[in-house]
Amino acid sequence: MSQQGDRPATTDDWWGRLYDESARDTGPAEAPDDTIDDRFDSAADTLGAEGAADATTRAGYGQAVDAIGVDDEDDEDDAGDEDDDVDVAAAAGSGPVSRPLAWWEARGAYPVIQAPAPAPASPPTIVDTPPAVPPPPPPQAPTPAPSPVAPTPLTPRPRAPWEPPPAAFDPSDARPLPGAVDPAPPRVTTPAPAPAPDPRAAAPEAPIPPAPEPAPAAPLTYVGDGPPTYDAEPTALPATEAEALGQLVADTVLDGARYGTYTLRAASMRGDSARYRGEPRRDALLTARFGAGPSALVLVAVATGARATEGAHLSAADACRWIGGAVGRSHSRLGEDIRAGRRGDLKSGLHRLTDRTYGKLRARAAELGREPEDYTASLRCLLLSADPDCRTRVFFGVGGGGLFRLRDGAWQDLEPLLPEPADIRGEPVLGFGSARSEASAEQTSEGDRLTMDLEITKPPGPVVEDPVPPPPEPFRFRASVARPGDTLLLTSVGLAEPLRGEPALGDELAARWASAEPPGLAEYLSDVRLRVKGYADDRTAVGVWEA
What we know:
alpha+beta
């Protein structure tokens, strides 16, 4: 039990009692007569040894052991060697032993170890030389042997009772210290020199460098006899006013989509001449989708304002916007007619929608106080169904432009042809004053006369002072069925004219679009802007790639 009676003392309590902070330090013990001999006798009695050396012998033995400074690793092995048991007094140079040594005191004599003499200098290094007739080595003077150095006696010191006696020292067990240098230097061998080259041997052939790969050819930027006159990039912006910012048009418009079995690419850009003069782009482009799913209808409209007229880009934009609104309101019926292949219904219906669009253009010109021919535009459109089972492509419009098809690597011009006025043949229309009408009035087919000529004077016709206006542009319509691999191209006048006038342009586009995969938007724009000298108008092109 502890002093408090709480719990029994455990083995660990001795540590607390030993290092208790409350215990007072007793201080050093007073032992004036405590000497090394007394301590040695006490240790010998405690261990049960019989007899011990006297004080002088013990002091001398301790000093000899301290002077030698040998480890006690081999004490147990040396304990049984009788040849090493000699008088300790002989090693220390003392008198007779007063008592026998203990078992752990029986050791042999410990002579004083003298420092070994330094090793003689090593002989000169022999260098192996491989020549056939080596030159004789130069004579070398013999190196005098170093004079022996007298050993320095070691002063023994007293050994403490707790220090074990050292074992006998054997110089053969000595090991080199870490970092010591081997007195014998390594043998140096000189490599044999390379044999002289044989002049009769043929010189090795130098390796032939690989032929440099040809640099990729730069893409064509124009076709024809020479480069175009104007720069290829825009130079001047069109002038505008603060109140007319909504009338600005971009230099280039790019769009695309993919529905059903076709891929659509559309681009419109300002011509080189318009870029140079800072005029706005007269071409307008509209791409719109009406409805969703297979019944959806895609409309692409391209319009070009009248040349050399003010606000030509505005009339083109109005034409695209109004035809888009008309098609969007009737897209369900138009989509059904396209999927069913009703050509007659499509032609008549689209003709009415186009006439309404031009009627709005004439009304807009009247609002602006301008002539109808000054505020007009050519209009060309494509209707594409989103149904993957429908491959009918419908074209309609009014005015100039181009409709082409690339099939089997060759271009086909699909523009509906219009008859020339001189090619029109036929009898005049029956009416008042014609010879046929007068003959009809006099007699029937059987020759009977129905009326009589009363010689009544006919009134004069109306006087026309102004020139007769040119007849309006005829309506154009075409519906065709696309085949896999076809490319349909709808263009404005700016691209249709160089395609018809420069065959190299059509050949280059056919080579670029020969692959089955349609080009990307950037690649398509680069193809469409391929320039031709002498053609600097705005360009608008709509390409449809059939899967």
